[in-house]
Design a protein that fits this description.
- The complex is a heterodimer.
- By secondary structure, chain A is an all-alpha fold.
- Chain A has 10 helices and no strands.
- Chain A starts with a helix and ends with a helix.
- By secondary structure, chain B is an alpha/beta fold.
- Chain B has helices spanning 3-10, 27-31, 75-82, 115-122, 140-150, 156-169, 185-197, 215-230, 242-248, 266-271, 276-287; strands at residues 37-46, 49-59, 64-68, 90-95, 98-99, 102-104, 110-112, 125-128, 203-207, 235-238, 251-256, 259-264.
- In chain B, strand 11 (251-256) and strand 12 (259-264) form a beta hairpin.
- Classes of the chains: A mainly alpha, B alpha/beta.
- The interface between A and B is medium-sized, with 23 and 31 residues.
Chain lengths: 233, 288
């Protein structure tokens, strides 16, 4: 027992492989950034559908949210990587394969777009009608109102929630190793196969993730609170 | 660009010039010709409820028209119809003789305007709302320069200079960099007036601008409105402030159940009301 403890606390092996592990971490960050952009833009689109005047549009938006919010990210990842290419292949009568990175970005992006859509929708609906009336009365177009009046307020309002989502999302990037995206966890497994020393390597990976996510969320929360307080005083 | 407009935009701004007035034109000569705003037969219904049942009146350039009436008489709806925030079901609004909701071609055919065209027209009317409706994520100055920059496409520097001028008029220049949440209701409403003025509108529409203010704050807003009226601003004022309406208006319109029940110069409307409804309405205010 004490031997196991000593082993898992001895991170020298983790440090030894830092170059390859760092490379993996960069993949995590890349998957995160790409998936986050997908989640934000698709989520905004779905939110706008959900508050559309036409009911078929609202239905599409609602379906989107319900499907992706209720799909486990692991299953979505496997489905997008193995099933979706098959379906597309049948549809266009050609063999289709997704690069693991592409699958990871699509799967995580869409799963989280469901959550972001709900955040956007709630944020948009929380804005008093008078704010929009004022914009319209000065001749602002609907697009201008969306970008200059609605979204800046929505972003401020949903920031704490969005921050939590980003943290979950960054954590979720660790499962992309399952479809062989060479991320940190994937590289850790590779090294473990070679060195047969899982304890320090897994512990090192855990500590690395913890430090990164903790530092990010503390930093961003501090920054965002000050920013929010200005308008919600 | 017309010469008048060029002159307006390059000349230093005097109070009387802030609204779109041509300096060397005597207002009285233009008055009788084309009214600044013509409201013609406006109807508006919300489901089974017919809020406006054919309201018509003119607002000559440089004049102040007050709209009074009980709650639910359609005053606010009327104002929202004037700039098509609520598109009227029937009737037309004319701004300087130009129909707001439709275009009439050379052959006299009426064609509904696109939203973009309506937007271009409605920016000629500066609206001040009961709830101020300042944008909370922008500073006071940010609120004031937003539409001039984004809609009028003014260079930022110019917009700021003119915006500050407008803030000075409403005595809010010292709060230019504050966020609305940190201001009193009266200050917010004065900032909202500056925001409307900054668009150099042809007319200002006030929708119960003091109704959500504490009594001690209404005076500072009414003071600013009084000055605008004295400077020859074309104004439609929906209000519950009878003494204010009496003092500043050129014409008073009494709305009752979606119709103009009585109208005339303030002396007549307040001094010698003809209709029974208006007499009842005014007597309630006298008691207070």
């Amino acid at each position: 027992m004490s031997d196991a403890l000593r082993q898992s606390l001895d991170l020298s092996m983790f440090w030894e492989y830092r170059a390859i592990l760092l490379q993996g971490l960069i993949f995590n960050v890349l998957v995160f950034l790409c998936a986050a952009s997908v989640a934000l833009s698709v989520g905004l689109g779905a939110a706008l559908l959900r508050i559309n005047r036409l009911w078929p549009m609202r239905l599409i938006g609602t379906l989107h949210v319900e499907i992706f919010r209720n799909a486990p990210d692991y299953i979505m990842l496997v489905w997008v990587h193995f099933v979706l290419p098959l379906l597309i292949g049948i549809a266009i009568r050609r063999r289709v394969e997704f690069h693991p990175f592409t699958s990871a970005v699509i799967a995580l992006g869409f799963v989280y777009s469901g959550y972001f859509a709900e955040g956007f929708r709630a944020g948009i609906q929380a804005i008093p009608q008078g704010n929009l009336d004022a914009g319209r009365s000065f001749g602002m177009s609907e697009r201008l109102i969306l970008w200059r009046i609605i979204l800046p307020q929505v972003v401020r309002r949903m920031l704490p929630e969005a921050l939590n989502l980003f943290v979950s999302m960054f954590k979720a990037t660790t499962i992309v190793s399952l479809i062989a995206v060479p991320d940190l966890m994937y590289n850790v497994s590779m090294v473990i196969q070679q060195e047969m020393r899982p304890l320090p390597l897994y512990t090192g990976a855990a500590i690395t993730y913890f430090l990164i996510i903790f530092a990010l969320s503390v930093g961003v929360r501090h920054f965002s609170e000050r920013w929010r307080r200005k308008i919600l005083a | 660009m017309s010469i008048a407009r060029a002159a307006r935009e390059s000349a230093p701004i005097f109070m009387s010039q802030v609204l779109s007035q041509v300096p060397n034109e005597a207002p009285s000569q233009v008055l009788s010709e084309v009214p600044s705003i013509r409201v013609a037969g406006i109807h508006k219904r919300f489901g089974p409820l017919e809020v406006l049942r054919g309201v018509s009146f003119d607002v000559p350039r440089g004049s102040v028209v007050s709209v009074i009436g009980a709650s639910g008489s359609g005053k606010s709806t009327l104002l929202r119809c004037v700039n098509h925030l609520e598109p009227p079901d029937a009737g037309e609004i004319y701004i300087d003789g130009e129909p707001l909701g439709a275009r009439v071609d050379a052959r006299g055919n009426r064609k509904a305007r696109s939203l973009a065209e309506i937007n271009a027209m409605r920016r000629e009317l500066g609206v001040v709302f009961q709830q101020f409706n300042l944008w909370p994520h922008m500073t006071v100055l940010g609120n004031v320069i937003e539409a001039p920059i984004r809609v009028r496409k003014l260079p930022r520097k110019e917009a700021v200079a003119y915006g500050e001028e407008c803030l000075r008029r409403v005595r809010m220049i010292d709060k230019a960099n504050e966020y609305p949440a940190r201001l009193s209701g009266g200050q917010q409403q004065r900032a909202a007036i500056a925001r409307a003025l900054a668009m150099r509108p042809k007319a200002m529409l006030f929708d119960e601008a003091t109704s959500s203010l504490d009594p001690e704050l209404t005076d500072e807003v009414l003071g600013v409105m009084r000055e605008l009226a004295a400077d020859g601003t074309t104004m439609i004022v929906v209000t519950h402030e009878m003494s204010f309406a009496r003092e500043v208006s050129d014409r008073v319109i009494f709305l009752h159940q979606g119709l103009v029940e009585e109208e005339g110069p303030p002396g007549d409307v307040f001094g010698a009301p003809k209709s029974e409804r208006l007499q009842q309405f005014l007597s309630k205010y006298r008691k207070q």
